Amino acid sequence: MMRQFKTIFKMNFIKEMQYRVAAFSGIITQLFFGLMFIMIYMAFYETNASPDNFTLSQMSTYIWLQQAFFAIFHYYDSHKEISRQIISGDIAYKLIKPVSMYNHWFMEFLTADYSKVALRALGILIICPLLPVIGLTAPVSLEAFLLFAVSIVLGSVLIVSINMFSYILVLLTLSPGGVFGIVTSIASLLAGSIIPIPLMPEAFVKVLNFFPFRYVSDLPFRIYIGNISTSEGLVQIAIQIVWITTLIFLGKVAMHKVQKKIVVQGG
Amino acid sequence: MKMYFQYVKMQLKSSLQYRASTFMMMFVQVFSSLATLVGVYMLFLKFDNIAGYTFNEVLITYGVILLVFSLCEFIFRGFDQFEKLIVTGELDKLLIKPRSIFLQVLGYKLEFGKLGRVTLSLLVLIYAAVSSSIEWNALKLITLISMVVSGLIIYLGVFLLSSSFCIFTVQGTEVVNIITNGGRETASYPLDIYNKAFTKIFTFLIPFACFNYLPLQYLLDYPGVTIFGNMLAPYYGMLFIIPCYFIFKWSLTKYKSTGS
User: Fold this and answer.
1) B186, B200, B206, B212: best mutation site toward chain A, by most A Cβ within 10 Å?
2) Which of A73, A226, B53, B109 lies at a CB distance of 3.0 to 4.6 Å from A140, suitable for a disulfide?
């Protein structure tokens, strides 16, 4: 398992290094969007009372973390090659290999995400602490930072186990446009990617507790800024682990069922 | 003009061949726009106003930019995907035909699936217009319509610029994305809520403000609004197309085929 991870990661990382310019313009885009969101919420804060435990500097830090790790924490069709293989029928070559398709995809997605985020996150994490007032601040405490590190790694596994379902759906429907059009918008809203969860009304936040999405990236970011205390964070990390195991189990079952039904469209 | 309508007819026929797919695209598009709209709505459940603008007032700028952008994706799809024309060498084919290149790219692709979003944004805009505190009269209605027209023309200018950019770089870069998609997100809110420098960029460099907060303040009868500074702003913005068109024309003379 570990060797497989290393090999695929190396492949993906080398590939990503070929596209350094793309990473650079990615950083600029992320900076623009980060600034825009912060300015919007700032404007809200100026004429209203700012919410408890989500002050201007906490909010800015949250947004910058979101932008830094955007390459991992989103629900778009980011593994276009897999979609292409499914539609063109090239997937047949993968199916005859004696490896579990679920495990193979899982590794592929995880390593591709990690290689993609490396340069981008580095760029944001270097530039944004330098900004005045709306910069990226240090974590509230050492404990918070450690918990953040644990839960962001778990979050990256959780989002892959969620995105696996999207690709299983693509296998079934052969329509990446349709699947991602719907999944992306719902998941982004529930995950706090459209607006941060601390800015949502209470009633809606209660609903979010029933879904895995808020444990993906919102949890580590809020532990970092101290919006979620370390003791509360520990409990939520436990929930995060429960979601990961459940979703991987369900994903494997679903993949197994779909693989039996798969029709390769010639080609 | 007659030729353009021929193109439209052709495109409509071809997308009607894939009816299910076109309708599904409409549905999906509406869905994704609704998610961001819900986001804005939730912010206003938490907060009362943004820099003095209420939810219904923000809905006007939100509706205008959504309508402009979805109409653009529908009508100007050829320019939106100009990169594809260059990479595949399709542009060479268009260039050797004895017709206006501008018209040919315009008629190259019309995405009828985007009409779902056009409908949604029209509904949003109508709801916003009716529910807000604006006292409507003929002049204000004309201003609202000219905001949309102005937005369309400015966006066409942006697309022309990004197409010219593509001619030199072959592949569109993500930086262009900042102006098209980033501009759309930014102009969802009245632009004067942002930092002054930021607002100025979107007023004087890329004149999104001309179909955004400037005329909006006229609609809302803000104190200090003027006919010249606010009501006529959409018309000033339209002038943006002139330099863009010439840059596009000029960049075409520098075009080198990719050879594929």
Assistant:
1) B186
2) A226
ipTM entry: 0.88
Q: How large is the C-alpha radius of gyration of chain A?
A: 19
Look up residue B108 and give its amino acid. Y
What are A49-103's pLDDT values in tens digits? 888 889 999 999 999 999 999 999 999 988 888 888 888 888 888 888 888 889 9
What is the distance between the alpha carbons of residues B236 and B10, in angstroms, rounded to a whole number?
A: 35
- Residue B152, amino acid: L
Residue A14 pLDDT more than 90? no
Cβ distance A194 to B39 less than 8 Å, yes or no, reads: yes
CB-CB contact of A151 with A240 (8 Å): yes
Does A207 reach chain B within 8 Å, measured CB to CB?
no
Beta carbons within 10 angstroms of residue A208's beta carbon = 18
- SS3 call for A263: coil
CA distance A68 to A54: 19
Sign of CA dihedral A127, A128, A134, A137: negative
CA A133, A62, B213, A45 torsion-angle sign: negative
Flag if B178 and A28 touch (Cβ within 8 Å).
yes
pLDDT: is A15 or B54 the higher one? B54
3-state secondary structure of B111: coil
In the predicted structure, residue B1 carries a pLDDT above the cut 80: no
CA-wise closest residue to A146 among A237, A85, A43, A78: A237
A25-48 pLDDT tens trace? 889 999 999 999 999 999 999 988
Give the number of A-B residue pairs with CB atoms closer than 8 Å.
93
d(CA A219, CA A73): 12
* CB-based contact A112:A12 (threshold 8 Å): yes
